[in-house]
Amino acid sequence: MLLEARDVSFRYDRREDWLLQRANLRIEAGEIVGLTGPSGIGKSTLARLLAGYRKPQQGEVRLAGKPLPSSGYQPVQLVLQHPEKAVNPRWRIRRILREGWQVDAELRHMLGIAEQWLDRWPNELSGGELQRICVARALGPGTQFLLADEMTTMLDAVTQAQIWNAVCEIAEARRMGMLVISHDAHLLGRLCNRIVDIDTI
Amino acid sequence: MALLEVNDLSISFEQSAGWLRQRYIPVLHQLQLTVDAGEVVAVLGASGAGKSLLAHAILGILPSHARITGEMTYRGERLTPQRQAALRGMDIALVPQSVAYLDPLMPVGEQVRHAVKQGNKRERQRESFRLYRLGEEVERRYPFQLSGGMARRVLVAAATASGARLIIADEPTPGLDPDVMREALGRFRELADVGCGVLLISHDIASALTVADRIAVMYAGTVVEIARAADFAGDGTALRHPYTRALWQALPQNGFVPLPGEPPQLGERPHACAFASRCSAATDACLHEQPPVRELRRGLVRCVHAS
Amino acid sequence: MIRKAHTFLSFRSTSWSARRLQAWLSVASVALLLLLFAIGALWAAGQPIVTALTLRNLPPSAAYWFGTDWLGRDMLIRTLQGLQLSLQVGLAAGIMSAAIATLLGVLAASGKWADRVVSWLIDLFLSMPHLVLLILISFILGGGVQGVLFGVALTHWPSLARVIRAETLQLRQAEFIQVSRRMGNNWLWIGWHHMLPHLLPQLLVGTLLIIPHAILHEAGVTFLGMGLSAQQPAIGIILAESMRYLSTGMWWLALFPGLSLLIIVRCFDRLGHTLQRWTDPHRARN
To answer: Domains, chain A, ranges and CATH?
Structure first.
């Protein structure tokens, strides 16, 4: 299994400069790739293209040699920086965890999601607690690649370590591929098999 | 005399339970803190620990359903709501968390001039823009025309230009790349070096340690430890509270050790040490009594076992 | 959902409990007024309007609160019946308007071309004088209840449609909606489960705020003789007739029906605005 961006170029508006130009990236199953570089030059955009949130104007994104599926649960899942934006504020946690698939007790336990959170509203959980919910939701049985765009940037060190330890364990067990976007060189050093700079792709 | 002194500060929120009844949800509990002139004090902790509430309490901008007890003094005098209103923006300035605090419909130069309360507005604004390497053309720009880094510099420039003596910065650096972050934090160090007191609120220990003199660690609504920056070294044996040690050891560069468990819900078990459920050294005493604050090795700690 | 940035370094704080109390009082008083009206209308519906030539042109008194007209009819009963009819037409037209607004607003958010067409329609309707268009439509449809109903319904949707369009567009870009797509949910499902609950408060407020306009315009068109027919006890008819007798000093024929109309309309307006404040996303949810 291979997720790749082939010569992708992207810009939001025809009048603007390219955010990404002829970028290439390959992530193998079971591989953890770090992506780093200064703000505002396309790291998040590349992640959004790889997860199918946007289509590149040129080039293509391929999963196992084929384009990403256009409907159904996506095998490439993206977790973003701000969990409070990624959940419907009017849904209870229990319902959020059912949105894509039924998150099971085992995964909840691994991510430290307590039973009593399930009946609360999103604004009754802290950022760290809510991010675990988002991670759990993205780890359905159909997920083959997990893209983490500054997933733990807003969290304290203890929560960050908790989440990453659980995610890495799951990724290893399932031979899932991962892309980790972060400014924290120490974090990437801890997690990744290889680190690429956005400028060089 | 400390510039700012916070003593036994507790806050609870009034919540409607039914149509007319109310109950109080405690959110901050008997918090101690001082900030001296010339000093950067970082307040560290997880989201939900009450860091921003502390900042809002000092500024006097808590929502009206908050109940406050305890004492805050600024330059030795009590901070009353009237005094807070008078000092806010004059002596005490906030560098807000988000660039969204800038008015999108007003040129940034004008916004900074509004913040100036003493002296010649235009001169002070120009001076602070020069200090933060913001060109004169930036004055006339609107917030949407600025890069993220520039907008943050404008926010800091506004705080400097206001002539405030106490600067409160609420999470000013999340998601910045290392160069921009170093620069942004360096500004706060400079402010302290010219005699201001800076209260830097952050969840990022590593970056806060690069500029802070002292670190206050918050957990579940209270300060569990106040340490010197130098105490954060090696495997953390110089630290006083087990939570601080856990934070330090959870850094990717220090072991990446995940401490299991979660902070308790607000208001849950008011008569126990909030950390007891996750503490390996917890004893019976920890479950029946809130540990008092005590001085230890030129710092403060709220743990009966610390030595 | 639109976030307004705070003016930098200026902070507002209003008393939370006081605002709550004010909102409750406002709703309570409006509810009381509407209840009174409903009781009155029920009572009036059972009363036949009798012409009593001996009781002609009486000014307001204890027996005839609103006075009587040139045929000796009780103006209180006429007013209450007229208001009821106006209210029914206004409510129906308002709800129809809101339905059109929702349909077009959501349609506009679904694609570029649909958006262009709908936006053009909105601009077109907003650029024409309300009343002229309303009279035109009513006239084409042959007047009467049907004419007024469609006339009002077809002219009052554009501003709400614009709000719904903007909300829907913004929702489509919201992260949690995008995530929902990646979780394998189709747009229909997302529209029902995610978007509708977000739009519902806006819709409710929008409808409530259309209703007073609809009532006034119905009365207005009828007053001008291009709405409900003269046989119907509409408030517009009553006001139009009263004009002929105003010069003879029969002030009560116009004053009380007009005042009642105003109060009812203000009630709906107040209700809408209170609800609007309540559902305002800027207010922290406690």
So the answer is: 2-200 (3.40.50.300)
